[in-house]
Amino acid sequence: MDDRMEIGVDTGGTFTDFVCRKAGEHEWILKVPSTPDDPSRAVLDGLRQLLDLAHATPDRISRFVHGTTVATNAVLERKGAVTGLLTTAGFRDVLEIGRQLRTVIYDLELDPETPVFLAPGARRVEVPERLSATGEVVVPLDEDAVMAAADRLVAEGCEAIAICFLFSFLNPGHEHRAKAMIEEKYPHLALSLSSDVDPAFREYERTVVTAFDAYTKPVLSSYLGRMGQQLSRAGVAAPLQVMQSRGGVSAAATATQRPVRLFLSGPAAGVVGGGGAAREVAIHDVITLDIGGTSCDIALITGGKPLVRPEGVIDGYPVRVPMVDVNTIGSGGGSIAWIDAAGGLRVGPQSAGAAPGPACYGRGGTEATVTDASVVLGLLDPGYFAGGSLSLDIDRARAAIESHIAAPLGLSVAEAALGMHRVVNAQMAEAMRLVSIRQGFDPRDFALVALGGAGPVHAVPLAEELSISTVVVPRHPGVLSAAGLLSAPVEHEVAVGFPRDMSDTAPDEIRTVLDQLDQRCGALMDGEDVTPDEVRITYAADVCYVGQSHYLEVPIDLSEPEPLAGIYQRFIATHEQVFGYCTESPARFVNLRTVHQARGGEAAPLPQTPGSHTNSIRTEREVILDDPRVPTPAAIYDRATLSHGHHFDGPAIIEQPDTTTVVHPGWSVEIATSGNMILRKARG
């Protein structure tokens, strides 16, 4: 029997989650406290515990995939490298001027809304050089000025330099020459070129993402290098892979070349894990709902593929990197309920966090939270929360809701608790509409995948709100991001600016550019443990109407009889879907893109044998679901006792160590062969 193992490790702010897969055996899962000062300590500690659970040795690990927040935290905590910026003469202040956008327009004192901290004015240096808007050299590169700028920035303590010259996405020659000269004299410096990081038009966005790449490169290189060495010393021979924000994984050594692509990869892993759980039950169109303690992440998967947006946001700043389209709102189990000036009930975005946490934790928290409401409503068992590892105090929960919400509004505690649930559910339902209806998708055509510690608690009322009839609850919703790491494909993407009117473009010109992109992407794939015949290549173009400032991505198929006509028709259809209208106006290309993708590590779950299904109900208790005056008797199940083929109707509560699933009346539960639970609304 094959005894090789695959391990996925996702580092979060509170816990580091582990999933271990071994052929022919059930998965092992583990959660250990994170160590923010050095995340690798928690990884190595958890690895030792996981190997003990699996009775295995490190040399049996064939794949080790890591999801890390190191790059994101470096930005949020302002702990990146001291960074300098080289720009074309006359453009040193692009980073500071930005787009002159103001998210808060009535404050008397406006804070900067551009990431000036990346490279303050003293560390932004102009270099004489200039390209035309078509890429021809207008002013040759002043090589002496490049070296003088590098000398100055190194003297000021710079550990990294971002190079962003005007129109370099059309002709990267000047940037490449500047890099070669600086590397020769200062090989220790981290260098990021805009023509490599983001070869597309719009100067501000290109400058920002290149500066972010340089800012995080030394930090991430140090962390991943140290992690790789520690794993090797621990006896792990498998190469270290890391999750990217687009939803694919890559070798750590390759990821350090483009660290900006690791931003916000944690939510992406959860989406991939949700998609994998849905595929196990033959569902390919889903909305993933990941509810944790402080936030709720929502994403849409169609045809088995997550939607990818061309630009994300980190700490309020634009990061033009392809990312899984995740909508995050400040609604979670720890979200605090409060009453606004008009006397309305509000929930979040403030959170009680892990310390002191909700009032029911008994750790000093006094505010009323969503978790407190869940306890009061009977949805959570005070004696079996987190598998019994934490005892909840229902009296403290009642007291917090009574003093902060119920008494001021003249409601009973039960009415206030139910109101808190309805408010937070309404907020999450609106976020679900943003990722579906707003983008031209009908949520009724999708199933809902509930993950995170609180996702299965709220899944059914949210599904009913959007007329969704099927909910999938994976085997281990609380560690699904770690499972998603193992399901994700190995993937690399390369794009280039291609500003051409469609009417003036020939298919052969597109093919020439795509061939060049394939060579670059293939070089990245060479660093992965895959063979060429495993790689699947897809092409896409960013297209807009002539004169339009925003664009849409559409697939390219050069094997069609009329490839340009096919691209145009797909653009028209996508524009109609996303924006609700389209015209037969001329269109133009903005960027061309190639994506190389190899198989992921998704393994078939161990089939379950049907059980006897006798004595499955552990107990029964009254819960409040719809009417605070009339509690509903609900059967309580332990998920560990449920097996393939088990079927029962709500109302019911299914408890497991990492979550609780609430099944409302009119819904049924079925345990699939994979072990996933499928909740279905009765027809009628």
TrEMBL record:
<dbReference type="InterPro" id="IPR043129">
    <property type="entry name" value="ATPase_NBD"/>
</dbReference>
<dbReference type="Pfam" id="PF01968">
    <property type="entry name" value="Hydantoinase_A"/>
</dbReference>
<dbReference type="InterPro" id="IPR049517">
    <property type="entry name" value="ACX-like_C"/>
</dbReference>
<dbReference type="Pfam" id="PF05378">
    <property type="entry name" value="Hydant_A_N"/>
</dbReference>
<feature type="domain" description="Hydantoinase A/oxoprolinase">
    <location>
        <begin position="206"/>
        <end position="493"/>
    </location>
</feature>
<protein>
    <recommendedName>
        <fullName>Hydantoinase/oxoprolinase family protein</fullName>
    </recommendedName>
</protein>
<dbReference type="GO" id="GO:0005829">
    <property type="term" value="C:cytosol"/>
</dbReference>
<dbReference type="Pfam" id="PF19278">
    <property type="entry name" value="Hydant_A_C"/>
</dbReference>
<dbReference type="GO" id="GO:0017168">
    <property type="term" value="F:5-oxoprolinase (ATP-hydrolyzing) activity"/>
</dbReference>
<feature type="domain" description="Acetophenone carboxylase-like C-terminal">
    <location>
        <begin position="505"/>
        <end position="671"/>
    </location>
</feature>
<feature type="domain" description="Hydantoinase/oxoprolinase N-terminal">
    <location>
        <begin position="7"/>
        <end position="185"/>
    </location>
</feature>
<dbReference type="InterPro" id="IPR008040">
    <property type="entry name" value="Hydant_A_N"/>
</dbReference>
<dbReference type="GO" id="GO:0006749">
    <property type="term" value="P:glutathione metabolic process"/>
</dbReference>
<dbReference type="InterPro" id="IPR002821">
    <property type="entry name" value="Hydantoinase_A"/>
</dbReference>
<dbReference type="InterPro" id="IPR045079">
    <property type="entry name" value="Oxoprolinase-like"/>
</dbReference>
